[in-house]
Amino acid sequence: MKNYFKIVLVVAVGLAFNACSKLQNNVLAPIQPQGNIHPIGWTQLSSPDFHGTYIKTHNYDLSTCTSCHGTDFKGGISQKSCYTCHQGISGPLSCNTCHGSALNPAPPKDLAGDSLTTSPGVGAHQIHLSGSSFASSVVCSSCHVVPQSAGPGIHPAGTGNALIVFSGVAVTQTNTPGTRFYDSTKPTIVPTPSFNPQTLQCSNTYCHGNFKNGNNFSPTWNNVGTDQDSCGTCHGIPPNTPVHQGQTLQTCYYCHEPMIGPGGVIQDSSMHVNGKLELYGKSLSVW
Predict the structure, then answer these.
(1) Per residue of the chain (287 residues), what is the pLDDT tens digit?
(2) By C-alpha distance, which of 49, 40, 93 is closest to 69?
């Protein structure tokens, strides 16, 4: 009887051992601690592993970010919110995350981090946006498409270059038939603006003289402060027309006040380069 129980005990132990062995063979090895999922320099601007650099080299595809941080970037499965660092109203999708500053979204800085106006991505952005003593500010949509929102598949995407499409004041038409000051000896001026990415020149814009009696000047985008917009570039001083013969900069105010005053000083920049003809105290929207 004792031998019988010994045999049963040995068989039971053997079965248990064999079962445990098979179970162990099917158990996954314990996962070793991996530390941070991102490289050490992921949040360091100067690091080659900076996440902004990674996103740029991957054509601004943010899908890898949203897969962990959620489509709203507020945590997702990672439970790590991007808003911790990106504190703009739209978090990492705020315009000035990639370009511009806390003041406005226009460069500097540009997508490459440049701040000098000689850099193509910077150029004359700020002078256009802020205006000057003799010209009003220009809205961004006058020169290129402004995305309505940002996010995966919307913006940014591709190379990151802005889509140049001129509108607004840049395409103002002048010498229109039927208007009070229509000149039948001259063609109707319909600006067809263009931008050359190689020479960085703007051409055929109303803003720089493609209007009736204008010079149709082609400024170079990144030559800021080099007389690209100085008085006399867009039209002559005075314009070369019979009615202007014998006039000087100091006498412009005879007809164009209050926009310009004695001494040839612009008194109201909102009335200059605005798509209208300021004449005898009236703003003519067609001329």
Answers:
(1) 445 444 444 444 444 444 333 333 333 333 333 446 889 999 898 899 999 889 888 888 888 899 999 999 999 999 999 999 998 888 888 888 889 988 888 999 998 889 999 999 999 999 999 888 888 899 999 998 888 777 767 787 776 678 899 999 999 999 999 988 899 999 999 999 999 999 999 999 999 999 999 999 999 999 998 788 888 999 999 998 999 999 999 999 999 999 999 989 999 999 999 999 999 999 988 88
(2) 93
Q: What is the pTM of this model?
A: 0.78
Of 54, 57, 32, whose CA–CA distance to 43 is shortest? 54
Contact in structure between 129 and 123 (CB atoms under 8 Å): no
What letter would DSSP give residue 33? P
C-alpha distances in Å from residue 44, one per residue of 41, 55, 81: 5, 14, 17
On whether the CB atoms of residues 251 and 258 are closer than 8 A, the answer is: no
- Listed in sequence order, the residues at least 6 apart from 245 whose beta carbon sits closer than 8 Å to its beta carbon are 238
How buried is residue 263: exposed, middle or buried, by Cβ count under 10 Å (0-12/13-18/19+)?
Answer: exposed
